Amino acid sequence: MINNDQVEKMSDEDIVKLALQNQDYFLHIINRYQLRLFNFIRRITNASTEDAEDLLQEIFLKIYLNLNDFDRGLKFSSWAYAIARNQVISHHRKLQARAEGHTVALEDESVKQIAADFDIKNNIDLQCLRENIFKILDNLDDKYREVLVLKFLEEKSYQEISDIIKKPIGTVGSMMNKAKTEFQKELSRQKIKL
Amino acid sequence: MTLNKHFGEELLHKIKDERLQPKPRWQFLLKNYTVWGLGILAMFLGAVSMSLIFYMSNYSESDLYERAGGLFWEKIFLVVPFFWVICLVFFVFVVLYNIKHTKKGYRYPLPFILAFIISTSIILGGIFYVIGFGEKIDDELGQHAPFYDQVMNPHIDFWSQPERGRLMGMIISQSGDKEYILVDRENREWLVFAGSTSQPIDNKIQIGRPVRLLGRVRSDNKFNIIEILSIAPGKGFFEKFGPSSPKKMAPPSSALMMEKKQFNQVQNNFCLFLEKYPEIKLIFASSLLENKEVIKKIEADDPQFFRYLEFLNSGTSTTINWQQ
């Protein structure tokens, strides 16, 4: 048995190989991704903590059962996010029916990144943007909210987003542009002064 | 509002308690190979459809359809092989679906994949056509596929309308000078007369070879040929009726041969009668000459008519030219 410190230094792909031989190693995968996927679920849905946790459990079970389907040509994180996204889509209606609102904290860096990318004025009130960003995202179409969350909150590259939402990279680019435009429009519509 | 801090351990316990195991790798491989296999098969069938489009289009003769009295919509159906176009579109979509469902198929934009599939179908279909594979497939389908003549090849339906001057079938035997027996799509026999065509017959009509004929129905199961045309797409269909196929060969011509034998017997008796009484022969010949309009009318329906009149010249001092 390899000790925990050694496993922590290993890549996701190597831990997957170990988990296929011994399921105890799958705990390392869970520990690495549980918070990221939990936040991802809460950012793209209105799920309550309990619902998100149930969903997260289903996602990890699906990841475990399908470990042999993991394509080493992809990043493990993209594969895991794609499974999470599909699971969220199949539970979408149920989650919407129990809407509770987003309460996921945002890092200052994420908020600054959004401000810079959206060309929001320099003397931006980060606190205000932080408080209102989910209000704006909530009013966007699912497909636009999804790419914005993946790009700015999950900090994924275009290639990773393409692998997660299973769309060509060019389509991701156009969706991103459209999403930014929609975000700006919603910003003006809600008369949020930043 | 945060995640349970024992989430990982609890989940691992659940996995162990329920004795869950990752699905075996072969299941995923089987799924992948099935997607690829079906995609490759659909690509091949799409290329075959394309080769048949090339083959049928190469033998579409829009000016001929006009001469043959085809209506506008009939010409459209003859010039564009709709059945194979629909097949091609279907297989293109099957390939598209399969590519999109391969592991990395989503990475390629739809126009790129469509362009790839269509250009591959054209190239492969072109190769199949050039090496004669398209023709071979058409022949095989003609011989074995049900509804070939109704669905796959509209030419057979178009050329099987004798009342509109179009007859298509297999020449199975020769019954006299410029007289042949043809079997049509319904296995019905026709006595076809090539006396009034100006074409060299030997090159066009051969026993065991399917033909298309332009002409006119003379009477039941008798057809006067004006023009003889060869068959390319659909020839396999008529090869079922060919003389090399013994089961199709046997019964057909007996009824026609019997009719022809009876006719010859009556003709011989009549000749003997006229030879015995030369005065009556003279009266018969001169009254025919007085009714040239009637002769012309009969000749229009039966080009062999003058041949029958030649016996009136035998044994006489003057030779009458009946065709003048």
The CATH topology of the largest domain in chain A is what? Rna Polymerase Sigma Factor, Chain: A
Strand order of the largest sheet of chain B: 1-2-3-5-4
- CATH second-level architecture of the largest domain in chain A: Orthogonal Bundle
Assembly state of the chains shown: heterodimer
| β-sheet strand percentage of chain B | 5-15%
N-to-C CA distance of chain A: 54 Å
Number of helices of chain B: 16
Question: For the CA atoms, what is the radius of gyration of chain B?
Answer: 33 Å
What is the CATH first-level class name of the largest domain in chain A?
Answer: Mainly Alpha
Report the count of strand segments of chain A: 0
Report how far the terminal alpha carbons of chain B are from each other.
114 Å
Biggest interface, chains and residues, is: A-B, 32 and 26 residues
Please, could you describe this protein's structure?
The complex is a heterodimer of chains A (194) and B (324). Chain A contains eleven helices and no strands. Chain A is mostly helical and 194 residues long. Chain A has two domains: 9-97, RNA polymerase sigma factor, region 2, helix turn helix motif (Rna Polymerase Sigma Factor, Chain: A, Orthogonal Bundle); 108-189, Arc Repressor Mutant, subunit A, CATH 1.10.10.10. The termini of chain A are far apart. Chain B is α+β, with helices and mostly antiparallel strands and 324 residues long. The interface between A and B is medium-sized, with 32 and 26 residues.
